[in-house]
């Protein structure tokens, strides 16, 4: 049906946006050399990496 087709397309778009934006955030955090981030940088890197992994697993597991 059209609704199932729409949900399938939405799943691919959401996965692509997840990888794109989290990848951009990961790059911005790792390239930033400002000291005001401090150890908070590692917290941000961990959560961004976990979000990318979660997006990949969710994309692969959902039927």
Automatic annotation (TrEMBL):
A Pfam family reported for this protein in Swiss-Prot or TrEMBL: 7TM_GPCR_Str
Key word Transmembrane helix present: yes
Keywords assigned: Membrane, Transmembrane, Transmembrane helix
Residue intervals passing through the bilayer: 12-30, 42-61
InterPro entries according to UniProt: 7TM_GPCR_serpentine_rcpt_Str
Protein name: G protein-coupled receptor
Species, as recorded: Pristionchus entomophagus
High-level lineage: Eukaryota, Metazoa, Ecdysozoa, Nematoda, Chromadorea
């Amino acid at each position: 049906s059209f609704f199932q087709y729409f949900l399938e397309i939405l799943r691919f778009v959401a996965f692509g946006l997840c990888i794109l934006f989290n990848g951009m955030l990961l790059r911005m955090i790792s390239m930033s050399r400002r000291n005001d981030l401090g150890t908070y940088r590692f917290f941000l890197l961990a959560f961004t990496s976990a979000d990318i992994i979660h997006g990949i697993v969710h994309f692969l597991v959902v039927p």
